[in-house]
Specification:
By secondary structure, the chain is an all-beta fold. It has a 15-stranded mixed beta sheet that branches. A five-stranded antiparallel beta sheet has the order 2-3-4-5-6. The longest helix has 4 residues. The chain is globular, with a radius of gyration of 19 Å.
């Protein structure tokens, strides 16, 4: 039986893409939930930061349980920080809202040759920033060798709560074009590995690496496939949108978009899988939620 959920958002109007100066989370306007500050949790999964007054919401639109706890979960996140930014706050699901599986912001190329140079950055403004699906952001800093769980590690980067990142070389072919974009293997404190190796621009215009694989220590894996549009004239990435999310035990979700969109960027209209469908509808006026 097909289950249809109706979800209402503010209207999405996307302006021309532009480079963002930085995605470093500001202490007063940090999007998502900060693990280093207490928040006032209310109903429906919303959190209010009592220091800044920022509201964040993480709502699970789709959930399919998996082996060993590696669940296939699609989270729609809201941030009053994003909603207050007229241009950079827009996404495929409305003003202030976003849906993704994880990304690392970095305005450049991450690979084994260049990362040793980045580790010598004197300010955190030049460092990679990890954003999780619920909107939480973590800044990577250069790392020294440390001991965790009886084993010594020397990763390229580390966060304050011990997420570690190692730069990789990555090459892939899309059509007749071969891309050499590098990327990161990010490991959570629980040992779950996230492979960020698909470079793209977000709807805010920021350059980011998108996650393509998530694997737990038991070998359970989730793969994320994207549709990406590029500008062949200037060899620039315009956007990338999730096409399919699947796991190695047979679970699968497909994402569908409206071809009639603002500035040529499609709007998410539905997600389907396992006999269920979640549909998204948008207001005709540019209203905030």
């Amino acid at each position: 039986m097909t289950i249809k959920n109706t979800v209402f958002f503010g209207c999405l109007i996307i302006s021309s893409l532009a480079f963002a100066n930085t995605e470093i989370p500001d202490y007063y306007d940090e999007p998502g939930h900060s693990p280093f500050r207490q928040s006032g949790q209310q109903l429906l999964g919303d959190n209010v930061d009592p220091f800044s007054g920022q509201l964040s919401i993480a709502h699970t639109d789709f959930f399919i349980p998996g082996d060993g706890g590696l669940d296939l979960s699609i989270i729609r996140s809201y941030s009053s920080y994003r909603a207050g930014k007229p241009s950079s706050g827009k996404s495929l699901v409305g003003q202030g809202w976003d849906i993704h599986m994880g990304r690392v912001y970095f305005d450049g190329v991450l690979n084994k040759s260049l990362c040793p140079l980045y580790r010598n950055n004197t300010t955190a403004e030049d460092n990679p920033v990890l954003e999780l699906a619920d909107g939480t952001r973590k800044v990577f800093y250069r790392s020294n060798s440390y001991n965790l769980g009886g084993s010594s590690r020397s990763p390229d980067f580390i966060t304050k709560d011990f997420w570690i990142a190692d730069c990789i070389n990555h090459r892939y072919k899309e059509g007749s074009t071969t891309y050499e974009e590098g990327g990161l293997i990010v490991t959570s404190p629980q040992g779950i590995e996230y492979r960020f190796d698909r470079q793209s621009r977000t709807q805010s215009g920021s350059l980011a690496y998108l996650v393509t694989e998530i694997e737990d220590p038991r070998g359970n894996r989730i793969d994320i496939d994207y549709k990406r549009k590029t500008d062949s004239t200037f060899n620039q990435i315009i956007y990338a949108i999730i096409d399919r999310v699947s796991s190695n035990d047979g679970r699968s979700l497909r994402f569908y978009y409206n071809k009639k969109s603002n500035d040529g960027i499609p709007l998410l209209t539905s997600i389907s899988g396992e006999g269920k469908t979640v549909k998204y509808f948008y207001d005709d006026e540019p209203l905030f939620i």
